[in-house]
Amino acid sequence: MINAKAYATHGPTNPLGPFQVKRRSPGPEDVQIDVLFCGVCHSDLHTARDEWKNTIYPCVPGHEIVGRVVAVGSKANKFKEGDIAAVGCMVDSCGRCESCLNGLEQYCEEGFVATYNGRGPGSENTFGGYSETIVVKESFVLKVAHTENLAAVAPLVCAGITTYSPLRHWSIGPGKKVGVVGLGGLGHMAIKLAHAMGAHVVLFTTSPGKAEDARRLGADEVVVSKNQNEMAAHKNSFHFMLNTVSAPHRLDDYLNLLKRDGTLVLVGAPSEPHPSPDVFSLVFKRRQIAGSLIGGIQETQEMLDFCAKHGIVSDIELIPIQAINEAYERMLKSDVKYRFVIDMKSLKA
Ligand code: NAP
Ligand code: ZN
Predict the structure, then answer these.
(1) Cα separations (Å) of 125 from 21, 51, 210, 338?
(2) Own/partner long-range contacts of 101-107 (Cβ < 8 Å, ≥24 apart)
(3) How far does residue 63's CA lie from ligand 2's centre (Å)?
(4) Probe ligand 1: pick from 90, 161, 245, 264, max atoms within 8 Å of CB?
(5) Quick one: which atom of ligand 1 is closest to the CA of 267?
(6) Pairing state of beta strands 84-87 and 65-72?
(7) Candidates 38, 40, 42, 46: which one to mutate for ligand 1, based on the most atoms within 8 Å of Cβ?
(8) Which atom of ligand 1 lies nearest, measured to the CA of 291?
(9) Partners of 233 in the beta sheet?
């Protein structure tokens, strides 16, 4: 066993603080990665505070991990010591079901093993990336082609893939009008990726102060969603909308902006349900509402390679781990530009 320094919370209203975790010694198919950077996803906050009512304590969040490989099992051959590698939201899955065989491990029929708050091999609780080191089955470890700005690469393996996967699945490209709802960690990656894919991108935000940033990130237009006139101007015009909002809200406002056969994809996962949409918003134009969960391992690698090729990284605020509780409070106020990333060196301080 390996003892590792980490940050954990012991209950829904407790702050995060120093904690020790035990990692298994790397098995033949494992790699051990010393965590250099870990992004802070809103899912970390939902989980730390038991907002989804499934948290096992103590809880060590973190599923946007970039680090350096420090040990490689005898049967692991994708990585060697010293390589830079990434780990996202999953560390294992059954590998046998139809979804796994289709490279869609996130939809594993037996449930994938989440990087944190998941069930590990001995069905123990998994601990995530707010930690100095992690041991992961090699087939769930991603290669990083970026050679610089590694802190800004970390958010790609959750915020990046969660937005890339639906954009690809719904064939977004030139000629498509795409709405992105919410400019946070996921939203800012959605803008960058949809823009790089050649779509016409419109951001919907509750924060008028983010408009200039949105244009810099690649949005062609910005709509302040509280402004009825601005919303009405886009009625019946979108092929696709990606909703990244972390809190419940009226979906009809966005459904009514879709063209005939347009799709509203929900990736935001609020702890309380959205008000049920009006059936008339759906039936008159055969509109669809769908959901999407992160992405498979192969697609996550494809996304990382796409980002490296297009020079895409996340816009980040680098923080020491000691600032994590304050970062959560700021995230709740939609006050982050546009992803906090923990510099894991700070854990040794
Ligand atoms: P985030 O950085 O906090 O961004 C969420 C954004 O939503 C905010 O910046 C804000 O944008 C908007 N927003 C927040 N509260 C709102 C409210 N009451 N009404 C309207 N808009 C509001 O969060 P994130 O890390 O991007 O994650 C977003 C959601 O996706 C979370 O629920 C997270 O758990 C979920 N998630 C899902 C998956 C998946 O696989 N489906 C993966 C990762 C995360 P504006 O200021 O622009 O309005
Ligand atoms: Zn996440």
Answers:
(1) 11, 18, 38, 30
(2) 102/296, 103/296, 103/297, 103/298, 103/299, 104/296, 105/140, 105/296, 105/297, 106/293, 106/294, 106/295, 106/296, 107/293
(3) 6
(4) 245
(5) 41
(6) antiparallel
(7) 42
(8) 41
(9) none
If the chain, 349 residues long, is cut into consecutive pieces of 10 residues, what is the mean pLDDT of each piece?
A: 97 98 97 98 98 98 98 98 98 98 98 95 93 98 97 98 98 98 98 98 98 98 97 98 98 98 98 96 97 98 98 98 98 96 95
Q: CA-CA distance, 62 to 344, in Å (whole number)? A: 11
Beta-carbon count within 10 A of 126 CB: 22
Q: What token pair was written down for 267?
A: 């990736």
**Do residues 182 and 247 make contact, with C-beta atoms less than 8 angstroms apart?**
no
Ligand 1 pocket check for 182: Cβ under 6 Å: yes
Name the pTM for this structure: 0.98
Which residue bears the tokens 């995230």? 331
- Domains plus CATH for the chain? 2-158+295-348 (3.90.180.10), 160-291 (3.40.50.720)
